[in-house]
Design brief:
By secondary structure, the chain is of the alpha/beta class. 44% of the residues lie in helices and 16% in strands.
């Protein structure tokens, strides 16, 4: 508690009425502009917002949202507040919080514990302050909130009706708890919903990762060799976009089926030890640790650049990188140079954190419209069904995905066919 009090006394803006901890409330006007901009391109969430304002399905409920705190997340928080919830928002990554957006949320009546580039200690304080609200429902991104509720804050787990998880990494952690029969409340794997991973992971990560890399480096992708580590849905999106930008793409994988898929999609596949010799740009998207390590750094070309688009900053081994380097320096915002003993320079983008958020604005707004609609509907599902849910990991029903997709199509003025009664009868016959 002493450590926490020291942090609270720092010269950051604290809104005592809302008990928020943010950097500067005067930044709010810029944040309002950002939130208002994304609202124009989120028709599904707008539709839910219109409905929730009338029905107030979360009246009397407390919700904690721990996600990358930028404009799109802020709008989700406001939709939940408009639905009657008492909402607390905190960031899921130190480099993805936008201070102006945090300030705007506070002015809109949402409690916020977050500021850009917080320390690991401050990050823990923010999560714990959010949990002090004793939430009924949580929306997590990466599993850190759930982890606290199963360890140091387990006394609060019994009050949780349920929650949802945004990322592949977080779902992996949830399934581990479920398999060990230690999960203390039901969780919905929002990440595994069709309208999330088919679009968010593939098209969202695919575009935003390259947005972050190109914005940070101001270099071309065309003609370069790009190494994509991991060919899940995120890896597929990054590889596809790299190919479209004119790169020669190499994929590394541990799954033989995904490796074959990458080959059939037209990419070269090889082990990382071999790929390390050829890559100009490396992007990791595995959700695992030590994907690129010292043995790989030793054979990389001079000028090789590395970026991570997996949730945690453990895929590129920064300990090995620092050990091998004879000197380090920041050569440009979000680009750190590691000089090797033989004169080579290797570059790490965004501290090895999520490059699309650490060095960019995250996924495109239209993509997150689908993902955050799934999150809002996951929370609604929990409110309506928690009495019948076990302490398990659930996937959203197909009809929810269909509804989200249909709202999106309608907003895009796209029509589709419908089965006739005769066709339904034909498909359902034995």
């Amino acid at each position: 508690m002493i450590k926490q009090l020291k942090i609270y006394k720092k010269n950051y803006e604290v809104n005592n009425f809302m008990k928020s901890m943010i950097r500067d409330i005067t930044l709010a006007p810029q944040g309002h502009d950002k939130i208002n901009w994304v609202k124009n391109f989120m028709p599904v969430l707008n539709s839910l917002n219109d409905e929730f304002i009338k029905t107030k399905p979360f009246a009397g409920k407390k919700m904690v949202v721990t996600m990358h705190l930028e404009a799109k997340t802020a709008y989700l928080g406001l939709v939940l507040k408009n639905a009657g919830a008492e909402v607390v928002v905190t960031g899921s990554n130190p480099l993805s919080t936008q201070d102006d957006v945090a300030a705007a949320l506070v002015e809109n009546g949402v409690t916020v514990y977050a500021w850009y580039n917080c320390t690991d200690e401050e990050y823990e304080v923010f999560l714990n302050k959010a949990l002090d609200s004793e939430p009924d429902i949580i929306i997590d991104d990466g599993g850190d909130l759930v982890s606290l509720l199963h360890t140091t804050r387990s006394e609060l787990a019994g009050k949780i009706l349920g929650g949802s998880e945004e990322t592949t990494t977080g779902v992996i952690r949830l399934r581990a708890l479920e398999n060990e029969q230690r999960l203390k409340f039901p969780m919905i794997a929002a990440n595994d919903a069709y309208c999330k991973y088919l679009f968010d992971n593939r098209y969202g990560t695919g575009q935003s990762t390259w947005d972050g890399i190109m914005r940070t480096t101001n270099l071309t992708v065309v003609g370069k060799t790009v190494v994509v580590a991991g060919y899940g849905w995120c890896g597929k999106g990054v590889a596809m976009r790299a190919k479209g930008l004119g790169a020669n793409v190499i994929v590394t994988e541990i799954d033989p089926i995904k490796a074959i898929e990458a080959v059939f999609d037209g990419f070269n596949v090889m082990p990382m030890q071999e790929a390390a010799k050829h890559g100009d740009i490396f992007v990791t998207l595995t959700g695992c640790s030590d994907v690129i390590t010292g043995e790989h750094f030793k054979v990389m070309k001079n000028g090789a650049m590395m970026a991570n688009a997996g949730h945690f900053d453990v895929e590129i081994n920064k300990v090995d990188l620092n050990k091998l380097a004879v000197s380090t320096r920041t050569v440009r915002k979000n680009i750190e140079e590691f000089k090797m003993a033989d004169g080579r320079s290797l570059y790490l983008l965004g501290e090895g954190r999520l490059v699309n958020l650490a060095a960019g604005d995250g996924h495109p707004t239209e993509i997150m419209d689908l993902s955050f609609a799934i999150q809002a509907l996951s929370a609604l599902h929990i409110v309506e069904n928690h009495n019948n849910m076990e302490n398990k990991v659930y996937i959203m029903p197909d009809e929810v995905n269909m509804n989200v997709a249909q709202i999106k199509l309608t907003a895009m003025n796209i029509g589709i066919d419908k089965l006739t009664e005769a066709q339904k009868k034909y498909l359902n016959q034995a």
